[in-house]
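Methods, example record. To illustrate the input and output format used throughout this study, we show the complete record for Major facilitator superfamily (MFS) profile domain-containing protein. The sequence lines were provided to the predictor; the line carrying structure tokens was produced by it.
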Amino acid sequence: MERLHAHKQYSIFLGIMLSVYNLADKLYGAVYIVLMSRRGIDPLQISVVFAVSSLSLAVFDYPSGNLSDLYGRKKLAAIGFFTWGAGLCLFAFADNLLLFIVSAVIMSLGVALISGSPQAWYIDKLDDLGMMEYKNVVLPRLNGFVSAFAIVGALLATLSSNIHLYLPVAIAGVAAIGLSIYVWFRFSDNYGTRTEDNIFKEVYVTSVDFTRNKLMRFVLLKSIFSHAALLVFLLSWQVYGVNELKLPVSFLGVLLIVFMAVMSLSAFFSSFLAKRKVSAIKIITVGTFISAAGLLLAGLFPNPVIFVGGLILFEFGLGMESSSFGAWIQDLIPRSKRATFSSGLSSLKSLAGFIIALLLGLISEHTGYSLIWFLAAASLLISVAVLLYLNTMFLRSGTAPAEAERATI
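The corresponding predicted structure is encoded as:
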């Protein structure tokens, strides 16, 4: 009973971290572009803020995992929440381009410190209890709760922005800082393994280890193809829906809430399947095929009803894929470098996403949006092929998850 009690406490703790993080993120995300515009920042300058934010996140994210493994996953997550909250507060009251850029850099630093740290802390706590398998059930379930909190964040942003436009961002900042204090004082920390005295040497050595790890290379490749499809959705659905299908702008907010609700339901469904011993590979594969079918519907039929239905299918499949894949890959990541490798995957995926976003912009400008949806569906199917190859060639050929740390050239 004591083990079960500890597991529940750790699960609730991780759930609180991820839920408050997602709530604050949606509060910020609902108004930040409009807020910058109202403060006199023109579209080109907003693009500059975006670019600085993306590049600084890629720069900070890569070494953040090393810091987390060396100095404590929970400690770095708490510092990250505080840093992110401070950046949000500065963003809420910024009134010129320089302050918006500075706040974006601070927020990127905070997000980088958070990236992967809560999950790495939690997985190792489960490992200490001998309950690693339960992650396949509990992580999708937590994703369901987190998506539900995103709906709360969107609704709270709508209400508070009617009072003042900066208020949702300010509330997000205060919530993040409050969460940092809670995380700092709750539970003990855990660490990875240090091999070098100098942090720069540590980053170099772990980078070499990461690139030599066959499993991580294929995980990264699969992640990039999946991320490409998500980028198509994020960059295209609003513009395509409004400009091509003549959806009313006011309808977009309603759709966003529907999408988050669908993601929540699909995550709970994945947890239900995992609890009944359906393999993570099957859940990921089925979810990816559902997402690809949704994107094909969106691209094949220029009809608003079919378009919305296709995107709902995409979101449902995405919820199944992302929640199960996030749990499954933890079996492949060496415990001693769990946060380091997680941050490396995140950073490299973000860098690839930056390039993919530019390519998508060029393609959509010259060919229109129809081809984009087909490319996104094809990208998802390629990601499944990579996943099945990874599963067959490495895991079924004798490279068990426990041996992932030794799966190097």
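Annotations derived from this record:
Confidence is low (pLDDT under 50) at residues 399-409.
The two ends are 43 Å apart (CA to CA).
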